[in-house]
Specification:
This protein is α+β, with helices and mostly antiparallel strands and 259 residues long. It contains 12 helices and 7 strands. The strands form 2 sheets. A 5-stranded mixed sheet has the order 5-3-2-1-7, with helices on both faces.
């Protein structure tokens, strides 16, 4: 009931800002796939609008999200037009995007009136191919047309391209962000190996079952940390070992699939 009230208030506020332009709001990510952790997960949303958003509307959305993201959950949200969905391209154009990583930039732009992130120019986001794929497979239509009625089917090559961008980042950053990166690396491995689209938590549970024994203690610690339990710290050696194993296995799978 709490989450129903939360989404109803969020939806009503966004409808008030976008007015008759609003078409629908949709939930993807961990909330849609059952792995949401209130202490660390984002609320992942996609909003469909009929026409482009002008600067004034984007500023109102930015002001609203700066206040309400992290109250109590961080929000990651993208706005797309019907035309952008109908004429799908990868990386996909979008109208407006907010996540906590953009907070400081948005605050500065609203203060100075020098808009770059908030603008009406051509903006693209390679992550949208992954978001829409997950939405099509596991998403929730909170308000608006059914998902299949308004969102395109994303080519598998676009989805793979999207998740491999994050995968490459995680290969580099596994020591600085071990929980996110290990789970995300396993998630990409599982998709490349078996074509399974999963949440990070589901990927971790898969790793516990299917990975060699020598990596299971690391995976167990990652899952427990993701779920909010305190665990002992990660050693550099265990993180680089599991990273190297996943990279080797994943890229061999990629080569076989290309052949």
């Amino acid at each position: 009931m709490y989450m129903d009230n939360y989404f109803n208030k969020l939806t009503n506020a966004i409808k008030n800002i976008t007015e008759e332009n609003f078409l629908g709001i949709y939930i993807h990510g961990s909330l849609a796939m059952g792995g949401f952790n209130p202490d660390r997960s984002d609320v992942d949303l996609l909003v469909v609008v009929e026409n482009s958003l002008d600067i004034a509307t984007q500023c109102e959305l930015a002001k609203f999200l700066l206040v309400h993201s992290n109250d109590p959950y961080p929000i990651e949200i993208s706005f797309l037009t019907q035309t952008q969905l109908e004429k799908w391209a990868h990386p996909s154009p979008y109208e407006f995007h907010y996540s906590e990583g953009w907070r400081q930039i948005f605050e500065t732009e609203l203060l100075t009136g020098q808009y770059e992130a908030i603008n009406v120019k051509h903006k693209v986001d390679p992550d949208l191919a992954a978001h829409l794929t997950i939405l099509n497979h596991r998403g929730i239509s909170w308000e608006g047309p059914a998902i299949k009625a308004i969102f395109p089917v994303i080519p598998e090559s676009h989805y793979l391209s999207s998740i491999l961008t994050d995968y490459q980042d995680c290969l580099k950053n596994v020591e600085t962000d071990p929980v996110y990166c290990v789970l995300n690396l396993i998630r990409v491995y599982w998709y490349v190996k078996e074509g399974v689209i999963s949440s990070k938590l589901e990927a971790g549970e898969y790793g516990l079952i299917s990975f060699p024994q020598e990596y299971k203690e690391t995976i167990r610690k990652v899952i427990e940390s993701y779920q909010g339990n305190r665990v002992r710290g990660f050693l550099k050696e265990e993180l680089t070992r599991i990273r190297d194993y996943i990279q080797c296995e994943t890229e061999e799978c990629e080569e076989r699939s290309i052949e």
